[in-house]
């Protein structure tokens, strides 16, 4: 497969993932992190890192708005619930499996 086509396919897949996560506001970041080892914030951090690797500037706030589809503070206010003790315990128990970019491990 042509490299350019592969990159376009990967970009389309990423946009599909972001669109799905924007739709699933009922799914908390901590639950995604506990299950998959990454969350919406990790995706934003990967965007920032990819921009930096190409000599481009993308702030964390700009990247989060791309991923959340709105300013992060607005998303938190509308959709984020406090983490339960059980969620926090699982987060700590799975810390070693979290994406390196998360900064949690």
Main beta sheet strand tally, sense and closure: none
Strand percentage: under 5%
How far apart, in Å, are the first and last alpha carbons?
A: 36 Å
Give the number of helices. Answer: 6
Which superfamily, in CATH terms, is the homologous superfamily? SMc04008-like
Series of H and E elements: HHHHHH
- Helical content stands at 55-70%
| Quantity of strands, as a count | 0
Total domains, how many? 1
CATH class: Mainly Alpha
Average pLDDT reading: 97
Shape: globular
What is the gyration radius calculated from CA atoms? Answer: 15 Å
CATH architecture tag: Orthogonal Bundle
Q: Quote the CATH topology.
A: SMc04008-like fold
Pick out the low-confidence regions: none
Name a few traits of the molecule.
single chain, 105 residues, mainly alpha, SMc04008-like fold, globular
Describe this protein's structure:
This protein is mostly helical and 105 residues long. It has a single domain (3-102), classed as SMc04008-like (SMc04008-like fold). Helix content is 66%, strand content 0%. It contains six helices and no strands. Helix 2 runs parallel beside helix 6 (85-93) and helix 3 packs across helix 4. It is globular. The termini are far apart.
Concise synopsis of the structure shown:
The chain is mainly alpha-helical. It is built from 6 helices and no strands.
Any chance you could write out the topology, listing elements then pairs?
Blueprint: H1 3-23, H2 29-36, H3 40-53, H4 60-68, H5 72-79, H6 85-93
Helix pairs in contact: 2-6, 3-4
